[in-house]
């Protein structure tokens, strides 16, 4: 299996009314768990890593791990840089074989954000690599991923229209009341804003902070242009819960067996998101 440009996956989802689940991975175990579920449910998926995950393995190593795992499965998948914090990091990922990159300048002034994405878009098009930008700022509800903004700022439709004109990004991460981390209360999505964005910005939208989103809200958002949904915190929570449950009963348990069990704990989470995004059977 060869990793595809995410545009190929997300454009189809946008046209057909479902979303591609994009899962955070940081090692061989998490990567394989996603690809195995994608194969089982014949679903397109994206596997993604960003600055926090690169603390475990840098982009070139993560890309090699992803390619090694890909040899075992026949699935439609993209390898994505999530929340890239510099053009240099995006370049390292592109050189390593990532098929999709995000440069997140959402907390910077509009012109700086647009200029950086415009320059990166030229490099991406030359290599058939997909590009994601973010406008507005998606905050966080806990102390999770450090790349997330500490505060939220909703996406302004007129700004988004101009941003697309200037950058030509393939997909746009929007801020409509969503947040990174595990929600402590039901998120209040601004669906009127999302509908206005869709009427003015005719490209697939990305929902960051998918974890914990009620299914009915997710389906409504997909109907209004969300075609990629990021999932990270629920995966981390499943691993934490598995570790705690195992060590609570036997702290002398052989560590490789503990890791093997935590890998199994990821499957129900991945399968749930494949199902509720409507991605099952779409590959």
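^ structure tokens above, recovered residues below v
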């Amino acid at each position: 299996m060869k990793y595809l440009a995410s545009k190929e996956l997300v454009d189809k989802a946008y046209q057909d009314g479902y979303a591609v689940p994009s899962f955070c991975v940081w090692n061989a175990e998490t990567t394989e768990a996603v690809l195995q579920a994608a194969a089982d449910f014949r679903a397109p998926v994206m596997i993604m890593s960003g600055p926090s995950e690169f603390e475990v393995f840098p982009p070139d190593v993560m890309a090699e791990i992803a390619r090694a795992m890909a040899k075992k499965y026949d699935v439609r998948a993209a390898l994505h840089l999530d929340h890239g914090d510099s053009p240099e990091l995006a370049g390292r990922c592109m050189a390593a074989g990532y098929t999709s990159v995000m440069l997140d300048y959402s907390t910077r002034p509009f012109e700086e954000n647009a200029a950086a994405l415009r320059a990166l878009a030229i490099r991406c098009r030359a290599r058939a690599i997909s590009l994601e930008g973010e406008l507005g700022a998606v905050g966080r509800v806990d102390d999770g991923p450090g790349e997330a903004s500490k505060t939220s700022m909703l996406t302004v439709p007129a700004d988004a229209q101009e941003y697309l004109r200037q950058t030509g990004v393939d997909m746009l991460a929007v801020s409509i009341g969503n947040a990174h981390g595990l929600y402590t209360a039901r998120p209040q999505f601004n669906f009127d804003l999302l509908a206005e964005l869709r009427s003015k910005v005719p490209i697939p939208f990305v929902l960051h902070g998918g974890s914990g989103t009620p299914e009915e809200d997710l389906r409504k958002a997909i109907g209004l242009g969300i075609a990629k949904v990021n999932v990270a915190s629920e995966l981390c929570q499943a691993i934490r819960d598995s570790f705690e449950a195992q060590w609570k009963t036997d702290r002398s348990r052989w560590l490789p067996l503990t890791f093997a069990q935590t890998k199994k704990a990821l499957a129900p989470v991945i399968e749930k998101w494949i199902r509720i995004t409507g991605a099952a059977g779409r590959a």
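The chain has a mean pLDDT of 93.
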